[in-house]
């Protein structure tokens, strides 16, 4: 949907699941669009981060991962949960509303979010700015100072070196995108890889 709004063409789901953002743009953008790449880069992220009204209007398309809410409700009875999301602070209330709508626990939890400035580099506004990996590591550092973090679940392999650096013992890769293999997670520091949240039913974190 985002690519349709940005490029005014259909980008197949297979491409979204297997190609990077840059590869999708190179393959599907017109010659005229490629000459204005920085403009389209900003527009893409503004929609994703709901800085553009089109992003807010797309929220009805969101769906939760099957079994994720049930598993996290179970964990929240025994542990404090932290949702460390790449969403930005302007989406805090939107995100809380969605968590409740889809049955995710919000009691005994923390919602830790990026700031819009953390995306300055991704949006092309500041090439010298923090990478998203660095921004996430900074937020993770704060969480680890306040809590004994015993488990993390993430679907992006690039964040796992930070989880390993902070000595989180149970680092679970969620194999969601066809772009990655289980080895991509393990190589970067995951301790195990799962196909879906159902595999974590009755698998409580060790305190």
Describe the model:
This protein is α/β, with parallel strands linked by helices. The protein has two domains: 2-61, no CATH class; 68-200, Rossmann fold (3-Layer(aba) Sandwich), CATH 3.40.50. Helices cover 43% and strands 13% of the residues. It is built from eleven helices and five strands; from the N terminus they run αααααααβαβαβαβαβ. It has helices spanning 2-7, 13-18, 21-28, 31-34, 37-48, 53-57, 68-76, 92-101, 132-146, 160-165, 182-188, and strands at residues 81-88, 109-114, 151-154, 170-174, 192-194. The chain has a three-stranded parallel beta sheet. The protein has a two-stranded parallel sheet with strand order 1-2. The chain is globular, with a radius of gyration of 18 Å.
String of helices and strands: HHHHHHHEHEHEHEHE
- Find the structural class using helix and strand composition: alpha/beta
Shape: globular
Tally of individual domains:
2
Count up the helices: 11
- Name the strands of the widest sheet in spatial order: 3-4-5
Task: Quickly name the level 1 CATH class of the largest domain.
Answer: Alpha Beta
CATH architecture of the largest domain: 3-Layer(aba) Sandwich
The rounded Rg comes to 18 Å
Low-confidence stretches: none
Q: Hey, roughly how much beta strand do the residues contain?
A: 5-15%
Task: State the gist of this model.
The chain contains eleven helices and five strands; from the N terminus they run αααααααβαβαβαβαβ.
């Amino acid at each position: 949907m985002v690519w349709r709004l940005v490029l005014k063409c259909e980008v197949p789901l297979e491409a979204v699941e297997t190609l990077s953002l840059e590869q999708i743009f190179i393959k599907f953008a017109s010659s005229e669009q490629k000459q204005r790449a920085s403009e389209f880069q900003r527009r893409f992220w503004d929609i994703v981060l709901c800085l553009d009204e089109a992003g807010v209007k797309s929220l009805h398309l969101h769906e939760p991962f099957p079994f994720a809410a049930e598993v996290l409700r179970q964990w929240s009875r025994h542990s404090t949960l932290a949702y460390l999301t790449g969403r930005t602070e302007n989406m805090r209330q939107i995100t809380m509303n969605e968590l409740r709508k889809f049955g995710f626990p919000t009691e005994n939890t923390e919602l830790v979010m990026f700031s819009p400035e953390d995306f300055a580099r991704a949006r092309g506004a500041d090439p010298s700015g923090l990478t998203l990996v660095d921004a996430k590591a900074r937020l993770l550092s704060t969480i680890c100072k306040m809590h004994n973090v015993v488990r993390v679940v993430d679907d992006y392999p690039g964040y796992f070196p930070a989880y390993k650096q902070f000595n989180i013992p149970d680092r679970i890769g969620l194999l969601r995108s066809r772009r990655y293999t289980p080895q991509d997670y393990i190589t970067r520091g995951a301790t195990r890889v799962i196909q879906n949240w159902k595999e974590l039913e009755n698998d409580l974190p060790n305190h």
